[in-house]
């Protein structure tokens, strides 16, 4: 059983990348990393503060650097931020350095899971559901472009999502397990 590769989790806000990623890493005995967490660790401030002082462009530059640094690892599950796939170099690097899993769910489900949390500056608007729909329309083709595996998290628990991912990795479709 070869377990050298990385697993990169992409998908929209509230799809469950951080939650599923942590549990998947545990199930595989891989290291867990989260690019949003890493950006906050490096700067010592939260994501809304980075957006406030440096704008989205400043955040994207920090995110790009974190991806460059983290993809050098091995046997790692990396939960990415929802917009990581906007940058073509990120897409290229993720596709080249590991198996990319796209966690998918509806904008309504994303909204239900993110409504109480104020840590997502792109949703700090009057109409967060509408914003989530627009972001999905722009980004869905990019998530699919990089994905080796697409898994839905719609109306199901994280345990079931993790089980499905492990089973599909073991089936060998991606060559990681
Ligand atoms: N399958 C699920 N069922 C129910 N709740 C879930 C599920 N997955 C995640 N959640 C909950 O939804 C919220 C958002 O999940 P999470 O932070 O993992 O999303 P994310 O994809 O990492 O989002 P972001 O891109 O903003 O980092 C959390 O409160 C989490 O506990
Ligand atoms: O979808 C996005 O662009 C974002 C998602 C979050 O994970 C964070 O990376 C940040 O709030 C931006
Ligand atoms: Mg996350």
Automatic annotation (TrEMBL):
CDD domains linked: SK
MF GO annotations: ATP binding; magnesium ion binding; shikimate kinase activity
Catalytic reactions on record: shikimate + ATP = 3-phosphoshikimate + ADP + H(+)
Listed pathway(s): Metabolic intermediate biosynthesis; chorismate biosynthesis; chorismate from D-erythrose 4-phosphate and phosphoenolpyruvate: step 5/7
Cellular component aspect of the GO annotation: cytosol
UniProt enzyme class: transferase
Keyword Protein biosynthesis attached: no
Protein residues bound to substrate: 36, 60, 82, 139
Key words of the record: Amino-acid biosynthesis, Aromatic amino acid biosynthesis, ATP-binding, Cytoplasm, Kinase, Magnesium, Metal-binding, Nucleotide-binding, Transferase
One BP term from GO: amino acid biosynthetic process
Binding site for ATP: 14-19, 120, 156
Binding-site list for Mg(2+): 18
Cross-referenced HAMAP family: Shikimate_kinase
NCBIfam families: PRK05057.1 (NF003456)
Subunit structure: Monomer.
Annotated family: Belongs to the shikimate kinase family.
Function: Catalyzes the specific phosphorylation of the 3-hydroxyl group of shikimic acid using ATP as a cosubstrate.
Full protein name: Shikimate kinase
Organism from which the protein derives: Marichromatium purpuratum 984
């Amino acid at each position: 059983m070869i377990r050298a590769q990385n697993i990169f989790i992409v998908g929209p806000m509230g799809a469950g990348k951080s939650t599923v990623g942590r549990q998947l890493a545990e199930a595989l005995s891989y290291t867990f990393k989260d690019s949003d967490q890493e950006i906050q660790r490096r700067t010592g401030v939260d994501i809304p503060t980075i957006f406030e002082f440096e704008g989205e462009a400043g955040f994207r530059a920090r995110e790009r650097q974190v991806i460059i640094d983290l993809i050098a690892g091995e046997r790692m599950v990396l939960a990415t931020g929802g917009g990581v796939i906007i940058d073509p170099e990120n897409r290229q690097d993720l596709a080249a350095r590991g198996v990319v899993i796209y966690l998918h769910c509806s904008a309504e489900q994303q909204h239900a899971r993110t409504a109480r949390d104020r840590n997502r500056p792109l949703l700090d608007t009057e109409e967060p559901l509408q914003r989530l729909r627009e972001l999905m329309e722009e980004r869905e083709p990019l998530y699919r472009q990089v994905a080796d595996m697409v898994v839905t998290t719609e109306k199901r628990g994280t345990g079931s999502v993790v089980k499905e991912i492990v089973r599909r990795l073991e089936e060998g479709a991606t060559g990681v397990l």
